[in-house]
Specification:
This protein is α+β, with helices and mostly antiparallel strands and 321 residues long. The chain has three domains: 85 residues, Arc Repressor Mutant, subunit A, CATH 1.10.10.10; 106 residues, Periplasmic binding protein-like II (D-Maltodextrin-Binding Protein, domain 2); 100 residues, D-Maltodextrin-Binding Protein, domain 2, CATH 3.40.190. The chain contains twelve helices and 16 strands. α2 crosses α3. The two termini are 52 Å apart. 30% of the residues are buried.
Length: 321
């Protein structure tokens, strides 16, 4: 099979009745056809074709090779053609894994838009806090939160969101004005455990800084639960800004102390996939749409990422239970 190109060329020459016709069929220069035939005869140490001024005639060895290989070449070329057609086709499936809360809040409009354009592609979305093995489990993409390390995987930054204090408009309407971080200790809090113990929080405004001690009444490892408690008016909570965009626009939730910055590592979200080379057309289209719709101005260039070392950060900041 190491000489497949040469054998396939030989079969086409015989089938077409000459080098010129084979060159037209294969869309190759005649010189390339001739070189391949010469290499094949040299490799086999046998004459396959007798060349005359008018035509090519098979030798006995050439006839035996043609009879033995013509069907195999046709099947292999047909299989190759079908694989290439599948690679370019907008059908089949795309498998994506993402954190639960991020997937629920950010992906539906993107997937719906993709489906409108490519209705024959089935999108399988697995929302989980578990760090999946993309290659082992057959995922085309993963959306991950946390710091990235070097590896053979590829990552494209989607969003970097600061962690801020939020409360529902209804809750804040019933409370005294919160004009300074020191007032936070007077309020009920629901706390996402990935952000620490929730007791000592530092805020900065210009050159000023203040440490605030709070005592959350509720702690949970599920960010969706934190968001629900805040929306329902239980109290205040720390949430990455990306998750309350719509609620803030609708006036249901508002940021508390907008002039003060909560000092905590921002949450970075990346689109991760095994390779950037030879992606099927449907996968390239989904990747490009996700980047176009979800990537913000602070996105970065392509980065390598370690699927294993990313695991602990992803689990801490998975936005899910």
């Amino acid at each position: 099979m190491g000489h497949f190109d040469e054998i396939a060329t030989f079969v086409h020459v015989v089938d077409c009745g000459g080098i010129s016709a084979a060159a037209r069929r294969m869309r190759l220069p005649k010189s390339t056809i001739s070189r391949r035939l010469a290499r094949l005869e040299e490799a086999l140490s046998v004459r396959l074709l007798q060349r005359t001024t008018r035509k090519l005639q098979l030798t006995d060895a050439g006839r035996e090779l043609f009879d033995s290989s013509a069907d195999a070449v046709a099947r292999l070329e047909d299989a190759t053609r079908r694989v290439q057609e599948h690679q370019d086709a907008f059908e089949g499936r795309i498998r994506i894994t993402a954190p639960v809360d991020y997937g629920q809040s950010r992906l539906p409009p993107v997937i719906a838009e993709f489906n409108e354009k490519y209705p024959d592609v089935v999108v399988e979305l697995e929302l989980t806090a578990r760090v999946t093995d993309l290659i082992e489990e057959g995922f085309d993409f993963a959306i991950r939160a946390g710091k990235l390390r070097d590896s053979t995987l590829v990552a494209r930054k989607l969003e970097v969101a600061p962690i801020e204090v939020y409360g529902s408009r209804e809750y804040l309407r019933k409370q005294a004005d919160i004009s300074h971080p020191s007032k936070l200790s007077e309020h009920r809090f629901v706390h996402f455990s990935a952000f620490g113990d929730g007791q000592n929080m530092r805020f900065e405004k210009g050159s000023r800084s203040i440490d605030v001690s709070i005592n959350p009444q509720i702690r949970t490892n599920d960010l969706a639960m934190v968001r629900n408690f805040i929306r329902d008016g239980f109290g205040l909570g720390f949430v990455p800004s990306m998750f309350f965009k719509q609620e803030v626009e609708d006036g249901v939730v508002q940021r508390v102390l907008p002039d003060w910055a909560f000092i905590h590592s921002a949450v970075s979200v990346h689109l991760v996939y095994p390779t950037a080379r030879q992606l099927p057309a449907r996968v390239r289209a989904m990747r490009d749409l996700i980047l176009e719709r979800l990537r913000t101005a602070n996105s970065a260039s392509v980065l390598p990422v370690d699927d294993k070392t990313l695991g602990s950060a992803h689990q801490r900041l998975s936005f899910s239970g």
